[in-house]
Amino acid sequence: MGTRGVIGMPRVTNADIADVLDRLADLLELDNADQFRLRSYRRAAETVRGYPEELANLHAQRKLTTVPGIGKSLAEKIAEYLDTGQIGYLEELRAKYPEGVVEMLNIPGFGPRSAARVFQELHISSIAELEQAARAGRLRTLPGFGAKTEERLLHNIELYLQASERGLLADVLPVAKGLLAKLRALPEVAQAEIAGSVRRRRETVGDLDLLVTSEQPARVCEAFRGFEELVEVIAAGDTKVSARLESGRQVDLRVVPQESFGAALQYFTGSQQHNISVRYRANQKGLTINEYGVFVEEGDAKGDLVAGRDEEEVYAAIDLPWIPPELRENRGEIEAAEAGTLPALIEPGDIKGDLQVHTRYSDGHQSVREMAEAARALGYRFIGITDHSPSLYVAGGMTSDEVRWQHDEIVEANAEYEGQGVKFTVLHGLEADILPDGTIDIPEEVYQLFDYIVGSVHQGFTPDADRMTTRVVGAIESGLIDFVGHPTGRVLLKRDAYGLHLDAVLEAAASHDVALEINAFPNRLDLCDVDARRARDRGVRLTINTDSHDVAHLGFMQYGVYTARRGWIEAADVVNTWNLEDLRSWFRKRR
Ligand code: DGT
Ligand code: CA
Ligand code: CA
Ligand code: ZN
């Protein structure tokens, strides 16, 4: 048995070993090794990846060389990896080539020979430098490189960068749901689910994983390849297809037999860290879990299948209740499941209204009435209109007169709803700027008209975390705001959160009973999952709002709820799940 097993670490899987062999082959190719050796590594990686027996077990029995294509020298390297987690030879090769050169191997059409040449002859050691050199026409100094090659390379670099980036969940989830519906409609498909980070509702996703059960996997794969959402098939077999969506994002389809559905869904939902803990727990109970099922460990022989049809069964086999996918990040969910203390997570249906919505009074696209009607159509009980305060000129901040007109409109709308016996209320809020000195931009003469105030930072960001913290804490302590909008200011894939000492903010929010927003706009999701959880643990209330600037944005509420679920949030923690009466009296406490 390898030392990892002895010291109780989770086992190295065949996939882990295959990845290492592939990387070794990449580096050998860079190093100009002979084709024969290279191919033997590549083939070994492929064999190991699909090998039905765990190589970790074989190694324990000194039987690695029984695997086809694994000779003495490869067996030694695999053994070294299993025992120490490293291969000396691989580390040696790595030291010869910067990480950026190895990364170049991922550019379509740019092979190891080219990578080695640009590195050795032009000292280019990253994709960014390679791009620069191609743009400047410096690659054509190498024999065999011309203007055309440079042009093609630039295009391929762009493709690689595009596809390697993570995308927003909101860009992928609708496509995923569309593909799922089409798969379910195929006569050969019994069950189909989304897996991977999309099922866990991570804020950004690398690729999309889909899982299907069928007795005719090859036909399912063939039908899937024909779906118009796929612009390119990368790899296809009888039970597996990898393809590219129009966005450049990859989608992986796997087809498994019905009796493995739960095990495969559990495995491919991840996260990898969660699965490592799950496997470890299984091992301690004398069980083995993989994507085919839960098996009794019976020495060397493959043991009996004890679970696999559905996820409940898989978790039950290791004495745990089913764990919601959003929690599967190895952040204490297994311990909580064991102790029976998993949270009763908030659900989209718990939201009774949206408290951050813009109209044409500032930078929104529709009127108060149009936003209200759209919110009613979603089944909400209330909507809060929160246009910008005067100092935010760029976003059409309202003058005091505009606030008064807006107020009249809202009063009129509510009177009309009441007259018609419609149980729906428009609240009058304001998204007030938290100014650089920590004061809040509220036009004093109209302050009394508002039901509530959101305080947000929009301008005057500084990298000085102390100052930003003082600003936000000052706003909370002012007694004027009911919640802080998009508290950390981050924009996903574009702008980092401004430095903020969250603990200080949480302490102030808890003691002044000011809520923090989980802004549901898909590129904000601010607070993020982890921060929302910290807030909840400190007794801080939350509110989930879309920050809609258009009726079409109201549907973003789901993304805020997913983030909240990933932050272990329950409905009662979120003020806009409350009854309107309770919400109003909470607002009124402050005025
Ligand atoms: P992503 O695509 O980067 O947003 O994240 P995921 O979690 O969707 O990761 P992905 O697509 O690589 O794999 C999907 C799930 O499959 C992952 O969460 C866990 C499982 N999985 C895939 N490969 C491995 C592996 O080599 N070892 C283990 N333990 N699990 C794996
Ligand atoms: Ca994925
Ligand atoms: Ca994947
Ligand atoms: Zn804002």
Task: Characterise this structure.
The structure is a single chain. The chain is built from 24 helices and 17 strands. The protein has four domains: 14-164, Orthogonal Bundle (DNA polymerase, domain 1), CATH 1.10.150.110; 167-256, Beta Polymerase, domain 2 (2-Layer Sandwich); 262-339, DNA polymerase, thumb domain (Beta Polymerase, domain 3), CATH 3.30.210.10; 348-588, Metal-dependent hydrolases (TIM Barrel, Alpha-Beta Barrel). Mean pLDDT is 93; it is low at 1-9. The chain has a seven-stranded parallel sheet with strand order 11-12-13-14-15-16-17. The protein has a five-stranded mixed sheet with strand order 2-4-7-6-5, sandwiched between helices. Helices cover 43% and strands 15% of the residues. The protein is globular and about 85 Å long. Strand 16, helix 22 and strand 17 form a beta-alpha-beta unit. The N and C termini lie far apart (68 Å). It has 591 residues and is an alpha/beta fold. Bound molecules: 2'-deoxyguanosine-5'-triphosphate, calcium ion (2 copies) and zinc ion (ZN). Residues 196, 207, 209, 252 line the site of one calcium ion. 2'-deoxyguanosine-5'-triphosphate binds next to helix 2, helix 12, helix 14 and helix 15.
